[in-house]
Design goal:
heterodimer; A: mainly beta; seven-stranded mixed beta sheet; four-stranded antiparallel beta sheet; 11 strands; globular; B: mainly beta; five-stranded antiparallel beta sheet; about 0% helix
Chain lengths: ~120, ~110
């Protein structure tokens, strides 16, 4: 089973709202990722968590705040977003990301959350 | 040097035909090359991946051909079906390197006509 689930499927929020995106996997993967994807473009990496610790932040604005409560869950907290932040937000996970020796195993993506900022 | 160039941008193939999508890279440190298939409104699905120790990998109707000296790799879809109509992304990364960033190509929109 290579399932990554994401909720909600769709989200509409105003620029002053605070909302959260959730991602869950039960494959025992220890690396989890947030990507942003605009229409007709490839996914852009935002954050990587390895063993529940933030490993990579691709210079993402602070209005996006990731959180990894445990090895199965990944959240993305949203605050004061701009209309240009409207996109498909994808979560992914991979099997291993060993401390001290980083190994990329195949990344599996969730279905995404379609975010619209009004 | 971190780019992966993908072509064509769009492709129309008749049912039963062969779809071919090409990618090229510059960074010789890349040693992991996956292909993803994405349907509208869905997340990318891992289709097939290759390491440079082999020149070809086949899974069902999908084949990756890899040319290390030319720094190119391609996806061949044999007996293309309307259900294969989707956007395809190639990607590259360093399998055992210090980063686990996938560098994606720009995508190819495939339409298989019945």
């Amino acid at each position: 089973d290579t399932e990554v689930t994401q909720t909600p499927k769709h989200l509409v929020m105003g620029m002053t709202n605070k909302k959260s995106l959730k991602c869950e996997q039960h494959m025992g993967h220890r690396a989890m990722y947030w990507y942003k994807q605009k229409a007709k473009k490839p996914p852009e990496l935002m954050f990587v968590y390895s063993y529940e610790k933030l490993s990579i932040n691709e210079s993402v604005p602070s209005r996006f705040s990731p959180e990894c409560p445990n090895s199965s869950l990944l959240n993305l907290h949203l605050h004061a977003l701009q209309p240009e932040d409207s996109a498909l937000y994808l979560c992914a996970s991979s099997q291993d990301f060993l401390k001290g020796r980083r190994i990329l195993i195949e990344q599996y993506f969730g279905p995404g959350t379609r975010l619209t900022v009004t | 040097q971190q780019q992966v160039k993908q072509s064509p941008q769009s492709l129309i193939v008749q049912k039963g035909g062969i779809s071919i999508i090409n990618c090229a890279y510059e960074n010789t440190a890349f040693d992991y090359f996956p292909w993803y298939q994405q349907f509208p409104g869905k997340g990318p699905a891992l289709l097939i991946a290759i390491r440079p120790d082999v020149s070809e990998k086949k899974e069902g109707r999908f084949t990756i051909s890899f040319n290390k000296s030319a720094k190119q790799f391609s996806l061949h879809i044999m007996d293309s079906q309307p259900g294969d109509s989707a956007t395809y992304f190639c990607a590259a990364s360093t399998y055992g390197g210090a980063t686990n960033k996938l560098i994606f190509g720009t995508g190819t929109l495939l339409a298989v006509q019945p």
